[in-house]
Amino acid sequence: MRSLLELMEVHASLHESFAVHRDLVVLRDFPRALEALDRFEQDLRVHMDQEEKVILPLYEERIGHVRGGDPQFFYLEHRNILRNLDRARESLRRLIRESKSGAREAHVFLEEESLLYQLLEHHDLREKNVLYPRLSDALSPSEREDVLARLGRPQGIA
User: Fold this and answer.
1) Residue 1 pLDDT level (bands cut at 50, 70, 90)
2) For a disulfide at 40, which of 17, 73, 97, 122, Cβ 3.0-4.6 Å?
3) DSSP for 59-125?
4) CA distance 55 to 65
C-alpha cells in the first residue's frame, strides 16, 4: 500500500539544494550562492504551490484542526519561510556589493540564515510526522494513488 509520505522525497532534493547554497557561502562565492538560493526557492515554491493547491485543501477537508497540525500552521510556515528567504537574498546581494566581504561576513550571514534553516527543518518534520501520514491514513488507496499521480515529482527536482 502506497503512502503520501512518498511525496516527502522532494524534501531530500530541497535539502541538498539548500546545502549547495550554504557550501558556496562557506567558499565565499557569494554570486553563485545567490544563484543556488534562487534555484532552491524556485523548487521550493513549486512544492509549496502543490501543497497549497492539492494537499492542504484535502487535509483541511479530511482532517481539519489537529493540535500541532492545524492546516493554518502549514500556510503560515510557508509565508515565514518565504519571508526569511527574501531576507537571505537581500543579505547576499549586500555581500556581493561589498568588495571586502570575506570569511567573517560569510559566518555572520550563515548565523543570520540559521533561522531560515530552522524553519525549514521544523516545517519538514511537521509535514513528515503530521501532514502526510494523517492525510495518507484518511484517504482510500485509490484516492492516494490519484494524489500521487497528480503531484508526482515537481519539475526541476531530481
Assistant:
1) low
2) 17
3) HHHHT---TT--HHHHHHHHHHHHHHHHHHHHHHHHHHHSTT--HHHHHHHHHHHHHHHHHHHHHHH
4) 15
Q: How many domains does the chain have?
A: 1
| Residues 63/138, Cβ–Cβ less than 8 Å | yes
Within-domain flag for 157: no
CA dihedral 135, 136, 140, 146 (to 10 degrees): 100
Looking at residue 35, which CATH number applies to its domain? 1.20.120.520
Other beta carbons less than 10 A from residue 17's beta carbon? 20
Nine cell digits for residue 108: 555572520
Residue whose grid cell is 519538514: 124
Domain that holds residue 82: 4-151
Q: Phi-psi category of 31—alpha, beta or left, where left has phi over 0 and alpha has psi -120 to 50?
A: alpha
For residue 158, tell me if it sits in a domain: no
Distance CA 69, CA 72 (A): 8
**Separation in Å, CA 96 to CA 15, 36, 102:** 24, 14, 10
pTM over 0.70: yes
Residue 153 in contact with residue 10, Cβ under 8 Å? Answer: yes
CA distances from 142 to 1, 52, 106 (A): 10, 21, 49
